[in-house]
Design a protein that fits this description.
Blueprint: H1 3-12, H2 30-44, H3 49-55, E1 60-69, E2 75-86, E3 92-99, H4 104-121, E4 127-133, H5 141-155, E5 164-168, H6 174-186, H7 216-232, E6 240-244, H8 248-259, E7 263-268, E8 273-280, H9 282-292, E9 302-304, H10 306-310, E10 316-319, H11 328-333, E11 338-340, H12 349-357, E12 361-363, H13 365-368, H14 371-385, H15 391-416, H16 420-439
Parallel strand pairs: 3-4, 3-5, 6-7, 6-10, 10-11, 11-12
Antiparallel strand pairs: 1-2, 2-4, 7-8, 8-9
The structure holds nicotinamide-adenine-dinucleotide.
């Protein structure tokens, strides 16, 4: 796609300008927004036209339809996707999302972000994203297992331990990955089975997962917040924070920040928002969510609206739910010092400009939420070598790697006089461009 076309599409994407913050902004097109970010970074580093053109579209977009028997005996046809964005630096890598609003363009945007994320951190993987368009909350465990196994079967040889390696995302978890792994293994010759274990990462420990993977994304976010605090000479001990989304990413980030002496004052999920200026216990709240499915009915807090949530005073804000939740209204209302993007693509470009004007720092998704893919890489390596690394080793490697990349992005942003997101993209793009220029384009 030509640069001018991308720019036009970005402009045409719906924005949050007319939204009231009692509701999420009307969803724009994540793919065109991610393309707009690519556009900005491509200009900043003078990316070659050829590489820009290649990166403007995913390499492969797969859509599958598959029937599944439900518990009541009826059959339903499901729609599944796998978008493989780029693999110049290594096998396609990216999560599998189960959500009723999954679309091809959303997965194209998320898959592209995975390419930039792996390249930025110099993880030898490419970028991909997949999903099934349905609401997993409406299905029994047995139905979820059959849906996952049929989806894996439908993907067939399009995923593989050296070609495309899925991981958990919204609506999926370690159990989902184990079903994918088991199905994939059973589709292969018995002599190959064990080599297939690393077809997915984010597995449970018993089935070949890595210590530290479940909390890795949250842990990585906190490493970045710690680096930001050092740079800003801000004391996290005694600070306050709020989190949108209390699933894997949100709950682990909250538990780890609490250990550093920061207080969780407001939180929300798909059902609603709650607040307590005296502090919410992240561990007890996570137990409550495990039992009830939501933060909403937690007793030790006051129920608040979405508007009040975004206007809550807190030092740190970690969006950890879905994309495009921070529109112009939310950006004007936020009363924090920093937004650390735990979710992928939570901020509209227009909102980002408002945050910058208001002096609120933004730590971009591809930098801060990459702890998951990093420990996924460690898991993949452990499976490949038939090793089991102790938790301390995983955590130490994660910390060193996250902090190293954070420093590189910060230095590059200062050198180029650009924002952190553009600097993060630019570092990734530079690695990708060098690989293309050395290898050339076949034939
Ligand atoms: P999850 O399914 O475990 O949790 C999602 C949370 O968001 C839940 O608490 C859910 O109730 C909440 N939510 C859903 N819709 C909402 C809405 N409209 N308003 C408010 N809250 C809503 O998912 P997760 O794995 O924690 O992923 C969260 C985000 O982090 C996603 O953007 C995902 O792509 C990103 N991410 C995840 C990982 C990972 O390792 N799991 C890694 C990097 C980035």
């Amino acid at each position: 796609m030509a640069q001018s076309e991308v720019a036009k599409q970005t402009k045409a994407a719906p924005t949050a300008s007319v939204a009231s913050s009692t509701e999420a902004p009307p969803k724009g097109n994540l793919y065109t927004i991610v393309q707009g970010q690519l556009d900005k970074a491509a200009k900043a580093v003078n990316l070659s036209r050829e590489v820009y053109t290649i990166l403007s579209q995913p390499k492969n977009e797969l859509i599958v339809h598959f029937p599944v028997r439900l518990d009541d005996g009826n059959y339903r046809l499901f729609k599944g996707y796998r978008v493989q964005h780029n693999n110049i630096l290594g096998p396609y890598k990216g999560g599998i999302r189960y959500h009723e609003d999954v679309t091809l363009d959303e997965l194209k945007g998320l898959g592209a972000s995975m390419t930039w994320k792996s390249a930025l951190h110099d993880i030898p993987f490419g970028g991909a994203k997949g999903g099934i368009k349905f609401n997993p909350r409406l299905h029994s465990k047995g139905e979820l297992e059959r849906i996952t196994r049929r989806y894996t079967h439908a993907l067939g040889g399009n995923i593989g331990p050296e070609s495309d390696i899925p991981a958990p995302d919204v609506g999926t978890n370690g159990q989902t990955m184990v079903w994918i792994m088991d199905t994939f293994m059973n589709m292969r010759e018995s002599s190959d089975k064990n080599a297939m274990r690393r077809v997915v990462t984010g597995k449970t420990i018993n089935s070949g997962g890595s210590y530290g993977r479940e909390s890795a994304t949250g842990q990585g976010i906190v490493h970045c917040i710690t680096e930001w605090a050092k740079h800003r000479r801000f004391n996290l001990n005694g600070s306050s924070f709020m989190v949108q989304g209390f699933g894997n990413v949100g709950s682990h980030t909250a538990k780890i920040l609490a250990k550093l002496g920061s207080t969780l004052v407001a939180v929300g999920d798909y059902k609603g928002y709650i607040a307590n200026p005296e502090g919410l216990n992240a561990h007890k709240l996570a137990e409550h969510v495990a039992q009830t499915g939501s933060v909403e009915s937690y007793k030790h807090a006051r129920v608040i609206g979405r508007e009040e949530f975004f206007a809550t005073e807190a030092d740190l804000f970690i969006p950890a739910a879905l994309e495009l939740e921070i529109g112009e209204t939310e950006a004007k209302n936020l009363r924090c010092k920093v937004v650390a993007e735990g979710a992928n693509g939570p901020t509209y470009p227009e909102a980002e400009a408002i945050l910058a004007e208001r002096g609120i720092d933004l730590l971009p998704d591809i930098l801060v939420n990459s702890g998951g893919v990093m420990v996924s890489y460690f898991e993949w390596l452990q499976n490949k070598r038939a090793e089991r690394w102790p938790l301390e080793e995983v955590e130490q490697r994660l910390e060193e790697w996250m902090k190293r990349t954070f420093g590189q992005v910060q230095d590059f942003a200062e050198e180029l006089k650009v924002d952190m997101r553009t600097a993060a993209y630019a570092i990734g793009l530079d690695r990708i461009e060098k690989a293309y220029s050395e290898r050339g384009i076949f034939p």
